[in-house]
Amino acid sequence: MYEVFWTKQAKKDHCRISRSNVCAKRLIEILNVVRKNPFEETPGHDFEKLKNYKPSTYTRRLDYTNRFVYTIIDNLEEVKNLCGASYDGVVVIHRMWGHFPPLRKRG
Questions:
Q1: Cα–Cα distance for residue pair 32/78, rounded to 1 Å
Q2: Could you tell me if 96 and 14 are in contact, meaning their C-beta atoms sit under 8 angstroms apart?
């Protein structure tokens, strides 16, 4: 299992998606898959790695215009929550409404 963290933008996007029945159902399906194994290929959710994003960022399709964008942090020794349950890694959810987040300029 993976621990899931939400960015501020993802929390805002969740409020928008909760108003849409179709997207909300697909979001629940994707969240269940990502908590168990974020690398798992599932039918109906186009899973792909985004190029030129560091750390590695992945995306899954919610509907025609909205994408579920997240980062996986696997290289932690052992992640434990407050109750003591151990996790395989951390998934950081960046966006759920709209398209890909913009690349940050280095410099």
A1: 21
A2: yes
Task: Render the burial of 75-102: b for 16+ CB within 10 Å, e for the rest.
Answer: eeeebeeeeeeebbebbbbbbbbeeebe
Count of Cβ atoms closer than 10 Å to residue 6 Cβ? 16
Report how many domains make up the chain.
1
Check which CATH number belongs to the domain holding 26 and give it: 3.30.2310
Q: Which residues contact 21 (CB under 8 A, 6 or more apart)?
A: none
Q: Which helix (H) or strand (E) holds 57?
A: strand 57-61
Give CA–CA dist 107/37, Å, rounded. 34
Residue range 20-65, pLDDT digits in tens: 777 888 888 889 988 888 888 877 766 788 887 777 889 888 888 8
- What dihedral do alpha carbons 10, 16, 18, 24 form, nearest 10°? -70
